[in-house]
User: Fold Oxidoreductase from Actinoplanes cyaneus.
Amino acid sequence: MGDTFDVAVVGAGVIALAVAEQLLTAGLTVAVVGEASGLHPGHGSRAAGAMLSTFSEIEAGHDPQRVKVETGERLAAHDAYPAWLDRLASPGHRPELTSGTWVLAAANRAGDLTPIQAAAAAAGHNVEQHPGTQIPGLRAPAGSQALWLPTEARIDSGLLMNALTAAVRRHPNATWYDTTAVAVSPGCVRCTDATEIRAGRIVLAAGVQTAALLPGHGCRIGVPPILAGRGVSMLLHAPQVSVPHVVRTPNAAFACGTHLMPRHDGSLYLGATNRLSVDPDLGQNATLDEIAVLATDAARHLDPRLTTAQLKQHRVGYRPYTADHLPLIGRTSEPSLLLATATYRCGILLAPRLAALLADEILHPGALDEHPYRVLRPMPAPDLPAVLDTGASTALIEHLIQAGAVLPPHVAAQLAAFTDVMLREAAGQATAAGHALRRLWGIAPVVESVPALFELPARLTGGAR
Assistant:
């Protein structure tokens, strides 16, 4: 039967490895189950730009209680980062943070900066207002406005993942199984190569694949649905654009704005799209539409010179998240099975904080019983009218015109089909498409479903009636 470990950690992304490293530091024996090398298709950690966005993810429509919780946890993670990077350091090498983020908004969207500025000021962090044209190295649109957040940092995600991997692999109490888990049950992880790994406790940190590893997809042990936000990012060669810091726009079009940042090899990272996927295919490559949206938004919202940048590489990653958009950390109703996932767009920022919380729960069961991120928390699904009240309709228009200011013909067809269904339903005529819309909302009751809801009638009917 082989060795029995104190803990088995399933996953090889930033959260999984951060948890493993924290547990090893606490003196436990740890098995890591996940691919140690290769392309890691679909991994959000390796496709991420790694902005440590303590404030710049905040939107005007966010619930104040959610903002309070998330800002508090992000600041705690921010404070934990220096000591964490010291632990990950190897002789002659330590991943480094680069401080400073610019948040750039077009003249007609300057109000989007207000909640970001208010949150930073309330937390006692410096924040400055500037014309967008003052951002170093950038040719920002005329009339744009910007915030300078000197304490918001970034880190190179590739260097961080290399350091985390090395720190875990060199620890004497770690055993890395370079394989893929296919099923998890109390005390046992079963893998594609027929390996069975025994452990007293198992932490599932496999991102969007987490629930699929559990019998019945985890519903019997209190695991809520875990949704997937598909993101495409690029690495560019653009010597004509030299920015020393992160430059990003506020969240828009159901995504984390458009963001640009330098990498250690001289390239520029450009990200990122965000599209709901209820059935993620980790091997699916980027579509031309996703590439076009990213390239168009970069030139329109950040710097027109980016149209001449050369595309060196692109990546696709899937971000796990829940209906309330908060992480899942801690015990399920089966005490030996724990989760560390659903970090959405802040996994790299939150990694040291969530690893410490999870380790505390393992060492002191019940430590997270009142934490807002606990797995077994109430999670009522919002209804569609409530989501629309948050500005989803405006975000839908932004989503539709990302590739240009004129609706493409296929989008016009989608709009016609969607309007047809809505009018029929409003008149009391039940339709198959209306039923399908309600079914999709039941599967994924989150704001990111709105684009999929819009597109569904046209997919079912082959276009407008």
Notes: The mean pLDDT is 90. Residues 64-88 form the longest helix (25 residues). The longest strand covers residues 310-321.
